[in-house]
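ARCHIVE CARD
CATEGORY: sequence design from structure
SOURCE FIELD: tokenized fold
FIELD CONTENT:
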């Protein structure tokens, strides 16, 4: 083996180690984010463990779920947003709901984009965000920990799109700076 081959092997090994460290860090951040997301969405009111177990036992029957779907769900897009913006005397509650639901999923778009940066599949990332939001809404409905609202799903998806766009923007900026730095480094040598 010549020196060049050894250097190439060392560089590839270093890249694999760096990639592994990167993935461990991103996954750790994602798990922390998910735990915060679940706390904010599902357990926004501090409930004891016995309360949650009782809630699960009392809410998991078909009649209860049908009533919640019929009376306590919003399946009409933009109805809640419209009511908050137009008909609500207390605009702060509407603002917090609309902005909060959007901001809540920006990290999701950022982190999943960071996990999947090689594949760069924005549609897949958007699908993951939408499915996660839908799952949280359904869990809220079934367990009676909140209300199912299609507007929350829409706003969460918009937040994920913003996160994806932010990641793509930062990646473009980083690459342009990094390429310029490499070119300057090569010119100096």
């Amino acid at each position: 083996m010549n020196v060049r081959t050894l250097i190439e092997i060392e560089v590839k090994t270093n890249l694999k180690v760096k990639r592994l460290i990167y993935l461990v860090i991103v996954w750790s951040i994602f798990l922390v984010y998910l735990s915060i997301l679940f706390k904010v969405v599902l357990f926004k009111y501090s409930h004891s463990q016995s309360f949650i177990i009782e809630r699960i036992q009392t809410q998991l029957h078909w009649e209860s779920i049908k009533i919640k779907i019929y009376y306590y769900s919003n399946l009409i897009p933009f109805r809640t947003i419209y009511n908050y913006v137009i008909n609500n005397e207390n605009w702060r509650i509407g603002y917090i709901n609309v902005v909060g639901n959007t901001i809540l999923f920006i990290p999701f778009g950022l982190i999943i984009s960071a996990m999947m940066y090689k594949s760069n599949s924005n549609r897949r990332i958007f699908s993951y965000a939408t499915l996660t939001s839908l799952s949280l809404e359904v869990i809220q409905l079934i367990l009676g920990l909140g209300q199912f609202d299609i507007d929350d799903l829409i706003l969460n998806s918009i937040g994920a799109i913003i996160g994806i766009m932010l990641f793509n923007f930062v990646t473009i900026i980083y690459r342009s700076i990094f390429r310029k730095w490499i070119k300057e480094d090569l010119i100096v040598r």
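CARD ANNOTATION: Helices lie at 3-41, 49-59, 62-71, 79-87, 91-104, 106-115, 122-143, 150-188. The longest helix spans residues 3-41.
SHELF: design records, drawer C
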